[in-house]
């Protein structure tokens, strides 16, 4: 969809040079009808110079004539092939000067907790360069000893939704829809999905490996356990066989 250049200045020009209704102008420039009325009353956009949409190839004179004759006519911005794709951001994200010193900390956090992210994804997410990311990955950054990993969302370098989208994209590329263990899934799925999962039961390290043994008598169903004796009688317990086969008193 082609976007309008200088919408407020265009609204000023249309109010001053045409008899198009405030509602038609408001729909065309993306403003509220009361704002357009304020422009006509001089309360809004005072001192703003009008921007001619006809001269600048955003409208045809025929469209303006039709709008003036028909209050129901809807103005539409002319398609400009040269402006196609201009609404998409190009290059790395712009980071304010006050936050640029926080980028190494956010890069270290992403490298540590989301190793599945590529350098290009991290670069677009926090607005940095690939050499800086590589230096932090390899711990050759000049200030690596003083950098502490901090969540880029907490630093205001990106939105949580943007981070979740990048992590989800990396996860689907690497492992499809499969979710790994409880310790690894937080690195491979979005924050929203990870928080919604139930924690996996863990076996204490002291008895790790004993889960392969059965505590029931199912394994002895096919044969008798010869190591067990009947010691229900106390006398039979103490009357143990002697070496010569005679019972001791």
From TrEMBL:
Domain of life: Bacteria
InterPro entries xref list: TrcR
Region (Disordered): 205-249
Protein name: Cytoplasmic protein
């Amino acid at each position: 969809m082609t976007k309008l250049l200088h919408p407020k200045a265009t609204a000023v020009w249309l109010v001053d040079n045409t008899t198009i209704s405030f509602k038609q102008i408001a729909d065309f420039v993306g403003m509220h009808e009361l704002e357009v009325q304020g422009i006509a009353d001089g309360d809004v956009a005072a001192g703003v110079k009008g921007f001619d949409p006809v001269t600048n190839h955003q409208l045809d004179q025929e469209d303006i004539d039709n709008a003036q004759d028909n209050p129901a006519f809807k103005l539409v911005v002319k398609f400009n092939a040269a402006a196609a794709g201009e609404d998409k951001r190009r290059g790395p994200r712009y980071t304010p000067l006050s936050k640029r010193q926080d980028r190494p900390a956010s890069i270290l956090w992403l490298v540590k907790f989301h190793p599945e992210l590529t350098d290009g994804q991290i670069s677009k997410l926090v607005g940095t360069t690939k050499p800086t990311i590589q230096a932090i990955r390899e711990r050759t950054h000049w200030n690596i000893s003083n950098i502490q990993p901090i969540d880029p969302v907490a630093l205001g370098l990106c939105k949580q939704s943007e981070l979740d989208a990048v992590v989800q994209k990396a996860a689907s590329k690497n492992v499809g829809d499969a979710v790994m263990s409880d310790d690894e899934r937080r690195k491979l799925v979005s924050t929203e999905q990870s928080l919604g999962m139930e924690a996996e039961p863990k076996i204490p390290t002291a008895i790790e490996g004993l889960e392969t043994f059965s505590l029931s008598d199912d394994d002895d169903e096919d044969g008798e356990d010869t190591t067990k004796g009947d010691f229900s009688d106390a006398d039979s317990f103490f009357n143990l066989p002697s070496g010569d086969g005679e019972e001791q008193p």
